[in-house]
From TrEMBL:
Topology relative to the membrane: Multi-pass membrane protein
Span of the signal peptide: none
GO biological process per UniProt: cell wall organization; cellulose biosynthetic process
A Pfam family matched in the record: Cellulose_synt
Name by which UniProt lists this protein: Cellulose synthase-like protein G2
MF GO annotations: cellulose synthase (UDP-forming) activity
Cellular localization per UniProt: Endomembrane system
Binding site for Mn(2+): K256, D280
The UniProt record lists the keyword Lyase: no
GO cellular component, one term: membrane
Keywords, ordered alphabetically: Cell wall biogenesis/degradation, Glycosyltransferase, Membrane, Transferase, Transmembrane, Transmembrane helix
Amino acid sequence: MEAPPPYNLCNPNKKSAIINRSYALLHSIAITSLIFYRLSSFFHSTPSLPLLLAFTSELILSVLWLLSQAFLWRPFTCQTFPERLLQDKNDDELPAIDVFICTADPEKEPPLEVMNTVLSAMAMDYPAEKLSVYVSDDGGCGLTLYAMKEAWEFSRYWVPFCTRFGIKTRCPKLYFSRFDDEFLGQGYEAEKEKIKVQEAESNGKMLEEFNTKNHPAHVEVMQDESHNANGTNQVKMPRLVYVSREKNPSYHHHFKAGALNVLFRVSNMISNSPYILVLDCDMRCNDPTSAKQAMCFHIDPKINSNLAFVQFPQKFHNLSKMDIYDGQLRSTFLVKWPGMDGLQGPMLSGSGFYMKRKALYRDIVQEDTDFTQLKQYLGPSNELVKSLKSAKYNTDVTSRLLEETRFLASCKYEEGTQWGKQVGFLYMSLLEDYFTGFNLHCEGWKSIFYNPSSPAFLGTATTKLNDTLLQGSRWNCGALQVTFSRFSPLIYGLKSRMSLLQRMCYVYLSLQPFYFFPIWCLATIPQLCLLHGIPLYPKVSNSWFMVFSYIFIMSQLKHLEEVLSTGDPIRTWWNEQRIWMMKASISYTIGMLNAVLKLLGLKEANFVPTNKVADDEQITFYQNGLFNFQASTVVLTPLITLVTLNMICLAAGATRTIVDGSFNAMFGQIFLSFYVLMVQYPLIDGMIFRKDKGRVPTSVTLLSLAISASFLCFGSLIIKS
């Protein structure tokens, strides 16, 4: 009998694999030659401190490069066939899905934006009775609850409207924006709800008791399957559940991971769906069929037994053509994650993933596990433990059930349990997605990366330099928290069922913040030596100079090849060079400092939501490809200092080489300074030429000059001693 056609296909990208492996082989030979040259030169003469620092930087870059090749070794591409799934499965046979949406601060994450995300999730092209949407409001704000109630009221019009007319864009804001404010029919109702929430925001009364750190648990269920928008025929509607967990300064709330675990427990009591979709509050459902696409993998009998989650790429609706801040995260979602698809699967990426509920219980929930043992793991709730043995969907949410959910959302509930340790989303790191995904892969679970032609979800990218760099520092601090723990991929992965290449990918992400050392060394030490006529690289006439040239040129060409192969223009290559230097200088450095301070107990972990609100001026800068240097002094000063230092050293050093006739010996360092300044030209422009509000503040420029002068004086004393 002929086998039925598959719901999905995953095929290796052989062309990319051949290019990547060939490059890796040749580049490895060149790096080995460079290391041999450095070590052999050390035997002939005692290396100076600048030379040792340069060599250490080259070693770190070499190790990180080697680890990064695991992402490129076996790239895969996947496709799905939802139409085949629908031929084999009717609506009753599709598994239920719980959607988790987290918000924390109504000022940085406006309730209107959260409403649009909620409505787009409720209107997904999936059986309505199989959908439940849970909103976690960590701020416990009355305005957010009010917005959810208004969203529920409007959904009674919006969901049937989308279903009846097959609407493709199911985010109300995006759908009605095409009509230039000509709100007719359903659009009129959307505008009424928007005006109500805006009036509540401007009134401010609902923010008076807003306290993110101290408020009781509150759970409210919104459901009504008895009426449709016109109140005549029965229409099935998704359920909307508002959850605000208890907050108390005496208890650690574990940031987003803690909020997700509360939703995990509460949803277990109400809908108990076998699959979970996690979304950021600004990550709207763009393609309503994403759930069916994910089920093409989760229902596949060949892979579903050990498939933990299906990860969709994070894409953004507000990216400019220039994308100067690399908001699209091209390297991650178009190169690295497809590369991991050929291994054990991509890392968990915070938003836009369909997770199997069973995977978050790990191996704790087994048929032979007794009731008492389960309570030791999962806490004192008898009802929660009972729900594990049942796939019951509670159509009638009683007051008793609501009281139980509030108990599950209390601060004390997790005391003495394994929540965040062995169950649910894991704590210990600000980067809960990375840590949770790593543990799942260590336990033998697999994942799938699926990048459909139409974006499944669209979020809001950062449009300000300050937000971009601080967000990056938080990510890197979270990765380092794992690196400095007993769960470090360097050692913990050795005991797991994870493949060598998969482990290399995790080790690379865990060590990525160490880029801060070579970027600071190579942006300062060769320049200081250039100023004093001390060569750190071979002469141009020396054959060993070709090794250094080859490594630099080929790495640039490989980066350019990756950019062009993913369909991006050449300017993306240049923009990524620039923002990578900025992130390595600031994000990696601040992330490293914060992680070390937390390790030593000198600083508490802190999670600040990324600001989703942008003013018109900020958007104008971004859309025109202009950097907005209205940033924190701590963020901006190091960048300006590096540029100022390179400008001084290049001007003085180049003049010296012309006078001394040492251009042959100093060319490498001259080129390095020139390259840094070329890549970071927007900083020079912001210091000298721009006159708008986004320019570099004069105070920062003067402070940077003072720091540069101090460094040159201090460095000169060390070199001459």
